[in-house]
């Protein structure tokens, strides 16, 4: 536990600090460690930068295995993915690529392609699957329409309120994780998982947003009723249970109302 407690934050920082555009080049360190310049290449979708600079701490590995590419001043890196996610939902984003691989492996008629799809380079698809099920892919990295959702101030305000509420609930988990213990932390994690999914479906304007919000609220109320408390928060403040029991049904009604309001606005346009 002591080794993990010491190494984990150091390892995290070593892979965090270089996510910036403010640091340009770092002289001789460019030959040894992964610098911001190297990592900008890693995140870029420019054809010249695809599949380059995989290293996390030392850049010497990419130089050894031939996957190194130096950042060019005349080719500004554009960050993202070549197949836009078209969603705010981080859970969908994390699983969309493996889901596409599974779909293509199922759809292709070529038995050889069903196997080799798992070993081919980034972006490769079976020819018959790509022909029958085409996907939009960014060709001009400097001119493409980024995903955006236009919402009213009501929706934006509720989204901010939900994000702050979620942050407070998550902060409580981190602050009391030892007190909550197991299996409580897994139930709490599941609730956070469902909350993020429900909120981002609402941000996407999904027709199923109220359903996900209802599922989230139902889980929250069930946890309170089964434990008689919100993960021992009563030891800190007894009123939290009452506030959450009011908050959950109000959130369902608000999401359903705002979604109907958005539908009427879009129809009017």
> Order of helices and strands, N to C?
HHHHHHHHHHH
- Please report which band the strand proportion falls in: under 5%, 5-15%, 15-25%, 25-35%, 35-45% or over 45%: under 5%
Instruction: Tell me the radius of gyration.
Output: 23 Å
Shape: globular
Structural class: mainly alpha
Which sheet architecture does the biggest sheet show?
A: none
Quickly count the helices: 11
Contiguous uncertain segments of 5+ residues: none
Number of strands: 0
The chain-level mean pLDDT equals 93
Span from first to last CA? Answer: 58 Å
Relative helix content: 55-70%
Question: How would you describe the overall organization of this protein?
Answer:
The chain has about 270 residues and is mostly helical. It contains eleven helices and no strands. It has helices at about 1-15, 35-45, 60-65, 90-105, 110-115, 125-130, 155-175, 175-180, 185-205, 210-225, 240-269. Helix 10 (about 210-225) packs antiparallel against helix 11. It is globular, with a radius of gyration of 23 Å. The N and C termini lie far apart (about 60 Å). The mean pLDDT is about 95.
């Amino acid at each position: 536990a002591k080794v993990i407690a010491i190494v984990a934050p150091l390892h995290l920082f070593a892979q965090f600090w270089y996510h910036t555009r403010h640091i340009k080049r770092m002289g001789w360190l460019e030959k040894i460690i992964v610098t911001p310049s190297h990592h900008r290449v890693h995140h870029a979708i420019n054809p010249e930068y695809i599949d380059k600079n995989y290293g996390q701490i030392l850049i010497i590995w990419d130089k050894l295995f031939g996957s190194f590419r130096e950042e060019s001043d005349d080719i500004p890196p554009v960050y993202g993915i070549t197949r836009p996610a078209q969603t705010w939902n981080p859970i969908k984003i994390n699983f969309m690529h493996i889901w596409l691989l599974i779909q293509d492996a199922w759809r292709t008629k070529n038995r050889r392609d069903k196997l080799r799809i798992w070993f081919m380079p980034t972006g490769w698809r079976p020819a018959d699957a790509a022909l029958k099920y085409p996907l939009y892919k960014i060709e001009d990295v400097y001119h493409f329409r980024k995903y955006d959702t236009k919402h009213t101030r009501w929706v934006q305000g509720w989204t901010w309120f939900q994000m702050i509420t979620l942050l407070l609930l998550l902060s409580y988990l981190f602050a009391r994780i030892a007190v909550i213990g197991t299996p409580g932390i897994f139930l709490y994690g599941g609730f956070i998982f469902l909350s993020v999914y429900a909120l981002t479906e609402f941000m996407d304007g999904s027709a199923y947003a109220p359903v996900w919000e209802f599922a989230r609220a139902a889980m929250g109320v069930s946890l309170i009723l089964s434990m008689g408390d919100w993960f021992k928060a009563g030891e800190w403040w007894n009123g939290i249970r009452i506030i959450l029991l009011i908050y959950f049904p109000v959130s369902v009604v608000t999401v359903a109302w705002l979604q109907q309001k958005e539908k009427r606005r879009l129809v009017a346009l």
